[in-house]
Amino acid sequence: MYNPSVSGGNASTVAGSRLFLYEVQGLRQNAETDQMNNPIRKSGSVFITVPYDRMNQEMQRITRMGGKIVSIRPIEEVGTVNAAEPTPITAPVVAPAEAAAPAETAPTQTNNKPMTQAAPKAAASVPINLYKPNSPYVGKVLSNEPLVREGGTGIVQHITFDLSQGDLHYVEGQSIGIIPDGTDDKGKPHKLRLYSIASTRHGDHMDDKTVSLCVRQLEYKHPESGETVYGTCSTFLCGIEPGADVKITGPVGKEMLLPDDPEATIIMLATGTGIAPFRAYLWRMFKEAERQKNPEYQFKGLAWLIFGVAYTGNVLYKEELEQMQEQYPDNLKLTYAISREQQNAEGGRMYIQHRVGEHAAELWELMQKPNTHTYMCGLKGMEDGIDDAMSSEATKHGVDWIEFRKQMKKEHRWHVETY
């Protein structure tokens, strides 16, 4: 059995009170382990207690010994740990990793209590299905503004609805349903479509009486006839006039909620109109009127948006984003992947997965922090490319990316909404 003392330092002392329990598999006999007095398991897991200030060294040692770290758990109480029987853990599991974050990004401690990742919001605080399809809220369109600038393609609109005549309220990261006017080819009312909300809970007017959407008109060629087909609901919304009534349902969704922790790291990966929930996040974090409205939430962490579009003219909310970055350069990073104007390292088009690959080492390091949340929103096709980009980095640390991602999901730190 691999002895905790091998990691260096006394894990049971008060000075080493920030302890982490490593579950390791695959340790093998080699020149380094041959010098140890302790037998090495050839199968199954071994458990190693590591003080915080030795995490990097121990991960490097395990890698040299051919081991794979399956998980890292914070140990809430100091005491002697039996390596054969892991101490019961009450704190959330930290994502498995082979490289710990450096001192400035590793888990921090306040009042001698270990830091844990932000917990999901209590169910009671998240409104769900206040209005259903059989009794929708009917709100008026207040504005319908184009978002695509010169040089961009397609039609994308920012649409704001009045909520003052009902009780429709929401939080950042949720969606609402829209039931378009008219009937389908069978004479039945159209079914609702869900759209991510692009405004904070206070709305663009900061009066708690509006909700906004970012909608692209769907347009594609029919695979058999070749004729152009336009999306029913998106066309309805993109062409709607101020003053018109719209049937709204919801809100729905708990997958994309923003943590309450003002010191969290928020990584946002977006393509196209997938920017919608991230606009809401960034307003809540950095808009001056929002900060005044939310004295209990003053964001001090790091927000990093990696945004993939076709042309510069398709960088939605560009002026807003860059103004916030200018005001908070230490807290907001913007990275664009503009496929038709930029080239990747191989000379091909620059897609979001290429930008993720370029920054994979830094992203990986940030993901080791227990209060880092990663969000992905946009076209479903982006998922595989991002997995590939991060898999390469994880492999360098002896970690299986897919298992790591699953662990983040269990910890409510990996959030995906793609379509």
Task: Report Rg.
Answer: 25 Å
Annotated CATH homologous superfamily of the largest domain = Nucleotide-binding domain of ferredoxin-NADP reductase (FNR) module
CATH architecture of the largest domain: 3-Layer(aba) Sandwich
Q: Which CATH class of the largest domain?
A: Alpha Beta
What order do the SSEs take from the amino end to the carboxyl end, as H and E?
Answer: EHEHEEEEEEEEEEHEEHHEHEHHEHHE
Number of domains: 3
CATH topology of the largest domain: Rossmann fold
> Which assembly state applies to the chains in this document?
single chain
Largest sheet: 6 strands, antiparallel
SS-derived structural category? alpha+beta
User: Helicity, in percent?
Assistant: 10-25%
What overall geometry do the principal axes of the alpha carbons give?
globular
Biggest sheet strand line-up: 9-8-13-6-7-10
Unreliable parts: 1-17, 29-43, 76-119
Would you spell out the secondary-structure blueprint of this structure?
Elements: E1 19-25, H1 31-34, E2 45-51, H2 55-64, E3 68-75, E4 109-110, E5 113-114, E6 137-146, E7 156-162, E8 175-179, E9 193-196, E10 210-216, E11 219-221, E12 228-230, H3 232-238, E13 245-252, E14 265-271, H4 276-286, H5 288-293, E15 302-309, H6 318-327, E16 332-338, H7 352-358, H8 360-367, E17 372-378, H9 382-396, H10 401-410, E18 414-418
Parallel strand pairs: 14-15, 14-17, 15-16, 17-18
Antiparallel strand pairs: 1-2, 1-3, 4-5, 6-7, 6-13, 7-10, 8-9, 8-13, 11-12
Helix pairs in contact: 7-9
